[in-house]
Amino acid sequence: MRKTNFDLDVLRTFVTGMELGNFAKASERLGRSTSAVSAQLKKLEEQAGTPIFRKSGRGLALTDAGETMLAYSRRLLELNDEAVAAIQSVELEGWVRLGLQEDFGETVLPEVLGRFARAHPKVRIEARVVRNAELIERVTTGKLDLALAWSNGNATAHCEMVGEVPMLWVGPASGPQGWTVESGEPLPLASLEAPCLLRTAAIDALDRANIPWRLSFVSPSLGGLWAATAAGLGITIRTPLGLPAKVKPVSPEAAGLPALPSLGLMLHRAEADPDAATARLSSIVLQAAQEALAGLSPQPMLMRA
Predict the structure, then answer these.
(1) Which of 118, 148, 230, 231 has its CA 20 to 30 A from that of 92?
(2) What does each C-alpha distance from 183 to 1, 18, 108, 180, 210 come to in angstroms?
(3) d(CA 276, CA 93)
């Protein structure tokens, strides 16, 4: 039986389109015509031997086989890019200072460090996991080379938007969350110490909805916030990224809570033209963050005929 060898160029188009949510945008980023992209997707289905897409309204969505194909495509491209970097940049040396939000300390950071260290063992990475305000301050003052941080609406000199992340009301995973708007009691709000973008978003949403609230717990760290929320001391607001098993999202409709906006995620750089080691780590961080966002929920394909 003849073995199938997937075309990595086709897989890259497929993954890029999925991450951008639109194959027209993918064609622009990859420098190809839309007809060439369409031909690549047709080739992918032929190589897979099964439908990858299905009709969904005016666009396309992934089939079950397509979801599986997407996961394997990311892994194949990651290994390919890692091999290229390792072979072409074996002498890459230096020191890179990376900063991340606590939300990414146990999710994105291990993957980033592992991928980078395998390809560039001679480069030293200093990683700092701190609050958003400190990340921005350290990048702008040159104390960090890179920082992955929530967007507060203010851009630094050298930054790019990674994507939008939904904000969620979060309560304990076990037992009742203990509050509904019908109770008539102020909502017990657990939060991080100010300044905190998500704390401000929660208070603004509650005030606009005329829902009374009180600060029931304030923590300097995300670990403390998770412990208090899991214990039922209050409802907090975070994103789906890095939610531990001891907490879970609270349905706004069931509890009578207001809907929440999304939160921008930015990658900040201290220099417009960083050194080779920093540029390579920046690329890996960006890819890992985009993959984390893409994994939050199935993404519908918006490519039109």
Answers:
(1) 148
(2) 67, 43, 39, 6, 14
(3) 9
